[in-house]
What we know:
seven-stranded mixed β-sheet, disordered C terminus, single chain, mainly alpha
Amino acid sequence: MAGEFGEVLRRLRTAAGLTQEELAERSEVSVRTIRGLETGKRTNPRMTTVQRLAEELALRPREREELLRAAVRRDQDGEQPAEPSTEAEAGAGAGAGSEPGTEAYEDPTGAPADDGPGDPPTPTPPSTALHPAADPHSPSDPHSPSDPHSPSDPAEQLAALVTARWQREEEQRQVQDPFPLPVRWETAPEALTDHWANILRLPAQATAHPLDLDGELGEIAATYRRIPSRRLVVLGRSGSGKTILALRFVLDHLRTRGTSEPVPVIFSIGAWNPTTITLRDWLAAQLTRDHPGYAARGRGRESLAAELVESGRILPVLDGFDEIADGLRRPALEALNATTLPLVLTSRPAEYAAAVAETDVLTAAAAIRLTDLTLDDLAAYLPRTTRKPGREDPDANAWDPVLTALREQPRDRPDSPLATVLKTPLMVALARTIYSDTPDHDPACLLDTERFGSPEKLEDHLLDNFIPTVYRHRLHGSSSGGSHPGFDADRARHWLGYLAHHLTGLKTPDLAWWRLGNGLRRSTRTLVTAVLLALAIGLVDGAISFGVNGRVTGALLDASVVGLLAGLMFGFVHWLTYTAKGKQAAPSAVRLQLRRRPGATVWTAGPRLVIGTLGGAVFGSAYGFVVGMVITYAVTSDLSIIVHVGLVDGLVYGSVFGVATGLTFCLLGLLETPLDIDSAVNPRSLLTTNRGTVTTQLLVWAPTFGAVVGFGSGVAVDVFQGSVGPLVWTSEAAALLGVISGLGGAIGYALTLTAWGQWLVLTRIWLPLTGRLPWAVVTFLEDAYQRGVLRQAGAVYQFRHARLQQHLARHHRRATLHDDFIAPL
């Protein structure tokens, strides 16, 4: 934003009564540099230069902040901030009359900013890597929060990420095509608003006068800033535009945001259970879900996400209070009242009013209520959404008969079903999609009161026809750049219905790829995991055994035994880890870096070593005991011998697998490093990141675990030789055990204990195999997003509207009653 900086500098210099030459002489900055900054030819001033100018202009604190803000705002507008120079220079910059903590910056080309060439360097894309903080106590931690005025600060980077995300989402939703529907609001009734003295933050005995908060879409950020308490409730009936208003608030607030203001972030509050997790912890968890890089530690022991929330640098925009389960709305409102966080809360009026009746209004919060669209709004909007009329009748428009009929409706009669339905932006958007964007659909049929005798029937008609309409045409390309496969509308509706039913069962609006398998019964998830794991490990064992021995019968027998035992063991581990506790495998917030470890991780070597050793010992003991008895039973039927061999093998295998698992877990922990702070801003990138992490874990696990098992088995035999009886063990057997254990253990770990492995087993194999989802799940979800059926909310998808999700789920439940093809959940 070099132009803005130049204007501010010129204005402040003129107000101080100085010429460019006089300011240059006082500040020891060249006249050429000052002239370049004021004319916009120089776009990357060093922060030390800005601070010298501020010092010599004798600026007041507010003026100094304005100048600094104009200098650092370049990063938010797409220009590259100059990279920090050495720590010594950063320290010098902070001491030269600057505000505490401000870092010095250099021209990104490496040339001196004060005496470089006349032409400015070409701006480069904004950097997303955090620079080391100028704190001598943590000079190498790239994730520590730095100066809040610096573009490299985690909050500033989050602001840039949020801006980019919601700008893309607004384009995807066609909010500006051809122009935004006029979402308007009025001040909500007093019964839903706190005392104005509390809202205005007035002292005792002061007289409070209510604020007039009436406004429209483009004024939402300004309306919020007029509220001293910075707490606002947005009420509106289903489809009235609450989510679009929240989106516009975030973008407008970020556009006009000062560096000291918190970053607005949209959270789908319908997924919050206030009885199990506090609001701040939930906000931090959601922030980490969408931006895994913020799971890294900050300056203290907490994550960056938790520090941003606790320090008040996040402005929660809590969308969908009405989507919280009925019994949880009261505790949710009570939990919100227990905090003083500035926030924006959206809800349908009835659900919020019911919660207020049970407890109290949102403390210190003003409230606004969205109003209906008018006939004039429809007349201005709908005709411009159709194709341009032909030359024969340039003034004709498909919506003209509809609008004419609505205008001619007598005012002394109740509104027609169509007039009632088209009062909300959601239904107008559906009508536009079905009738404006499809030439062979005539919107005049919507006037048929015999066919559509009530608003509910008309809304169901629009919802019913939305999916077939958007799937009529084949998209030109997928978001990944490849050719688009296309999906049949009926099959797409069935799959979307399953997803909607899945979300209804989970009581969340968030369609997360790592939870898609949770729609199955817990027993089914465990059984499917165990069976597929047994098949995978059995195939690996059989192939290796056949390659070593060359005997098909022996390979099949060995594969059957090992596969069955591995399936049982790992299935039990999966049940014990997740099913019994009602938990799920979550995406990893770290990656593995084989060469070096630049930053601290949450895990330490000690806990990893202990947990891995104990788990491996238990698994190895059970595995060795069963394998020993099975093999001995094939030779003798003497029970005492069978049990003895089983116990000995359990002891040997338990010690070997315990050491191997502990060391491997420890090594994985040492190689873990936090994800980049700009990682995983959409579902596909999060999935790709986790797949890469699991792949690296396999490449580390298989050779490490196999080598320790192979070598350790020989050592264990030597250690226990004689004390438990004569033991027979060959180097060939040790090598074979090491190879099979390395590959089998890596496969078992990946499919059983990682989110990507569970995604592969349940979502990529089992659900498509049973017809619930397509084989190309990710492509299907991206296709639904491009068609406007789904929307992106960080690392998860959501249905375009809760009403659409409810409609599809209800249709799916009806269909499954008469369709034997669909397996019951």
